[in-house]
Amino acid sequence: MTSSAVRRPRRDAQANRAGIVSAAAVEIARDPHASLDAIARSAGLSRRALYGHFDDRDALVTEVIVAGAARFNAIAARIDEPDPRRALALLAAALWHEASHVRAAAAIALDETHVAHTAAALAPLRAKIAEIVARGRADGSLRTDIPADALTDLIEGTGRAVVSHLHVDAGDGGELAVKAVLGIAGLSWRESIELLADDSEETGE
Q1: How many CA atoms, within 13 angstroms, populate the side-chain half-sphere of residue 8?
Q2: What is the value of pTM for the model shown?
């Protein structure tokens, strides 16, 4: 047996697993209660083939959460803005844009059953928020009346609440998400509006 013949099934298995996770993300975003049968059909596989990769629906949902967290962490890694206020605004807007396409899946990731696992998967994103908070407290642009860890928790919690409970379209939601995060970070609503207006002028939007 050649080495390529040995590797081929493994590559196929990896492709099938990735296809299942992708199909699950799409189906769960469409219907939070999507069945394994529906997900398997969307992936072009049998239910039996799906069980070859995941023991149950919860294991598959967990994998979807990990994949989604990786995208959120990648977004956070790309934020490179020296002004802590603008960094938070850019982060909130970008995360809202990503989550707005998969709101049902995002809501599942943040429910009581999965939130602990989601928090662990989003450790790089949380580290980014903590770094922005530290810079903002140091230069006085973000609030200093509460401990840094608590402020990081509040910003993260506000972001979760916006994704889970704010029922508006993607266009309006992005701006509201930014205002909510900036508000908990210490900016007044007037300051948030001015910051958003300044950013719009700079980008020509």
Answers
A1: 5
A2: 0.80
